[in-house]
Structure formats: C-alpha cells, structure tokens
Design brief:
Number of strands: 8
InterPro entries: DUF2254_membrane
Organism: Gillisia lutea
Transmembrane segments: 20-40, 64-90, 111-132, 144-164
Shape: flat
Protein name: DUF2254 domain-containing protein
Low-confidence stretches: 1-6
Radius of gyration: 29 Å
Strand order of the largest sheet: 1-5-3-8-7
Keywords: Membrane, Transmembrane, Transmembrane helix
Distance between the termini: 65 Å
Length: 434
Amino acid sequence: MKQLYNRTLSFFNIVQSKIAFYPTVFAFFGMFFAFFMMYLESLGVSKYLVENLPLLVVDNGDTALTILSALISGLISMVVFSFSMVMLLLSQASSNYSPRLLPGLISDKTHQIILGVYLATILYCIFVLFSIQPTGDKYQIPGFSVLLGIIFTVICLGAFIYFIHNISQSIQINNILDKIFVLAKERINELIEVENDQSPEFPNTTDWFKYHTESSGYLQNISYTNLLDICKKEETKLHILPVKGIFVLNGIPLFRSEKELEKTTIKRILSNFNFARAELVADNYTLAFKQITEIIVKAMSPGINDPGTALNGIDYLTELFSVRMKKKDANIVSRDGTSYIKLNTISFEELTYNVMASIRTYCKHDIILVQKLLLMFQYLKKQPAGNKEYFDCLDKEAINLLNDAKSSISNKADIEQAMKMAEILNLKIDPSNF
C-alpha cells in the first residue's frame, strides 16, 4: 500500500505540473455543474425566482439565447488572448533567459487556474444554452442558470484583469530569480533539517552487491520511508549510487546492498525510485544553480549583452551559495540511531566549479562582474559552513576567476582593482602574473 501511495503521489505531482491539468479539472467541473443546474431547473428553481424575484431572472427564450451566445463568444476570445500571452511569456523566457525555466513557468498554478475558470464557464454556458426552449413559456426558461452564467462571466473578467497583472510580473527577471531562489532555499533547508537526525558513520560499500536500474529518466523522488522499512526487515543497508536529479540510463548501477537480495526484494526496492522526463527545482536544488547560472551566461552573451541581469543573478547566486554552505556533503538516512541508506550527492566543490566554470567564460572580460563575483567570495567566506573545506573551494575558484580575468582585461586600473580584492580575500597569488 505504501508503494502504491508513493507512486500515486509522484504521478499526481508530475501531472499537476502540466499546463493542462487545472484547466481540464475546471472544465469537467463546469460541465457537471451545468448538468446539476439542469436537475435543479427540473425541480422548479427558476419558477420560484420568477414568482418571487422576477428582476433576477431572464424569462424570455430569445433573450437568454442571445445573452449566452454573447458570453460564449467573449469568453472564447479571452481564452485565445490569455493562452497567447502564456505562450509569449514562455517564448521570451526561453530566448532571453534559459529554456530550463519553462517547466517552472508552465507549472504556475495561477495561470492554469485562470484558464480553467474560463473553460469551466464556457462549457457551463454551452450546456445551459442547449437546455433552452425558445418557444416555451417563462416557467420553462432556465432563468436562474442564465443568471449564474452572467455571474461566472463577471468573475472571469476579474480573473482576466488579474491575469494581465500576473503575466506582466512573471516575465520580470527579478521575480523569476526570486521564485527559483525561494524553491531552492526551501529544498536545501529541508535537507539540512534531515541532516540533524543523521549518523555521520557509514561503512565502505566497495565490496557490496550491486544492482541495476530497469528504467531511465531523471531520478526525481525516492521513498526513503519504504526503503528504511525494507532495510530493517531484510537487515541490510543500501548505498544509492546516482546523484538525485541526474539522468539515469537503463542498466547502469542504481544501488548497492550489504546483503545479497532476492528478486522480490529487489523489485520492491526499485519500485521506490521514481523517474521523470523533466526536472523541477522543488525536487532538485542543484537545478536552481544551473538555472541562475544559465541566466547569467545568457545575459552576458554577445547577442543579449545585459550586465544588469547578470549582476542580479550573481546576487541571488550569492545568497543561495550561503544557504548551501550550511549543508554537509554527506547524506545518510538513519532510523533509531542506525544508518541504513547512503546517498551520493553533488559536493560543494563540484557545485562551485560547475557554476564558476560557465560564468568565467562569459564574465571574465567585464571588471564590474569580476568585482561582483569577488565580493560574492568575500561574503561567503564569512558564512558558517557545514564543512571547513568549503573555504578552500572558494579560494580556489576565486584564484581561477582572477587568472581568467588577467588574460582578458588589459587595462592596468582594472587589474589593480582586481588585485585589491584579492588582498582582501587573502588569496595567495603571484603578483608577477598580473
């Protein structure tokens, strides 16, 4: 049951991130609500309103048909315009910033819900339209249902105004960076909280039994609770080999076990690994570093040349690195003081190198960005770290940045500014190289 629940939850999370999820749900709701109103009309709800509140009810068939037809036409036009705005947002984000941003923007619930409200109202009005009899008397006209259609349309107009406001905010780079940062920070803090209950000791797994994956995709979610139950029952320990978030190919080693396992147990373990074809920051915080890095690199590319956006990206990157420094490189899952599962994670050294290697290529010629990056290293060296070796990694990357800057910057005044920052950072650099 736990495995079924885990797979169902994972499937729901994947489907929920699709742009058509909420519109589809709301569309079905609008259709079923129209049938429900037809049932109420058969009980005489409109007849009661005609006799007691006649001003609120449309009692003419032709008028009701005209109103609903106008509402449907207007709502369809709003849907087309809103959908075009979403596609424009995705196109601009992909071309100006990074294609990796698309999954996060597509999964924006606000846009999905607004489109869903439009579709629900359109389907509701269409089915109510079919139930109208133009030649019937005023007691046969679904006046109350028509009134609700008008009210729903007014709600759609309000949603449309909010949609225009929201879409104009979503395309701004500061809001995009802030959303990425918040999601990544929440994910890292969750991992840090888990580390507090971990035992740092775990045996060497080189000689353990190795088992392979039967599927491929991005390693998105792992059900640690189920794996802990299996480990405790089978009296074994597991070492998960791929780093969470990377693309796992079919047939490569997935985990090692301290004991040799039966086929049924292996299948139970494999069922707790969920693979997807897309990456989300909420599941893999390293994707946030990739996205912000790509935004900085794209901003400094010759085709765009936007140093302001690059400076904003470095600010968010600095704060995100400061949060990551609180996390240890080791990741061990324990229960009752006993370590059962070890996970391979991307180290801080590897993370900083991957980020800085890309940024150095496009930013080394700009002294303002070089200074900004050196200020980032200065700030990070003052932060508490989960591992003292993190500071050595920062010094190494700062020296690499200065060496690249030296080969790209010819102005002596700019070089002197870089050297002053190196002195503040206490970097061991041979002045003759500059």
